[in-house]
Amino acid sequence: MIKSTRTNDRSPRLDVQMSWWGMNGIRPAEPDHAWDLETKLRFIAEAGFDGVNAFIPEPEEAADWRRLLDQYRLTLSVNAYPKSAEDMVDFIEKLTAYEGTVQYVNAQVLTPFVIDAKAEQLLYDIDRLARDAGIQVFIETHRGTITQDLLRTVQYVNRLPSLRLTIDFSHYVVAGEMRTVSEEAEALLRTLLTRTSSIHARVSNGEQVQVNVGENGEHPMLEHYERWWESGMRHWLAQASGDDRFPFVCELGPPPYAITVDDYGARTEEISDRWAQSLLFAAKARSLWNRIGK
């Protein structure tokens, strides 16, 4: 199985990762400070993150990535965007060059209009290919993908016993305009949480997919996400063993994903500090993990 070997600890543990995509637009205050690969990874490690969620490095960068991940004791997970089983075969072939480096694959399956039996077959094929290759692939709950519809995603989970998910409920909250969370929605979300294999941390308020939760997490929607994150952790721990790692990714996107002041394209300015919010989410994850006794 392709996974990190950064520690000899043989008990399940939390692995808090920083999104590489989320690093866009984040840099130290010094204007002339070099912001190369090593500086970024050191910045992430010194902030206390356990790893990075990124992409398969370009071949010419692979050696540097391996060296620096080992130097700063960081795990690496990567993202895939398959539209077919053949796409997944190609991705897995590229991934074999990084065996022992990549912890798991987060997959956004880019077929939002494939539904029912065809969708189930595609998800089954992706899962089978991953298992045959000995890698971990988690399907992300995400708008604009095969899991964009909450009702259908519950159906896929009920019909595919081995399907594992990356939970990011910000997409369902904004797509469903869940300014409040109904009992019906809560029941459906609980079904998906039983298949939690990783979490992408972002908070939506039902109108905007990524909101500022405040310096100390004052936003009233955060309590819902904390409840879901803790539930996902508990479900994962119930079946974890050995040196399994639970990935919690702080994934706050840059503009135009982030809320901005936008003067018709003339000026785009973020209204929150994504780095500070990422550190807050990391602390929340560790607090929840400690609360459940791990």
Automatic annotation (TrEMBL):
<dbReference type="InterPro" id="IPR036237">
    <property type="entry name" value="Xyl_isomerase-like_sf"/>
</dbReference>
<protein>
    <submittedName>
        <fullName>Sugar phosphate isomerase/epimerase family protein</fullName>
    </submittedName>
</protein>
<dbReference type="GO" id="GO:0016853">
    <property type="term" value="F:isomerase activity"/>
</dbReference>
<dbReference type="Pfam" id="PF01261">
    <property type="entry name" value="AP_endonuc_2"/>
</dbReference>
<keyword id="KW-0413">Isomerase</keyword>
<feature type="domain" description="Xylose isomerase-like TIM barrel">
    <location>
        <begin position="42"/>
        <end position="186"/>
    </location>
</feature>
<dbReference type="InterPro" id="IPR013022">
    <property type="entry name" value="Xyl_isomerase-like_TIM-brl"/>
</dbReference>
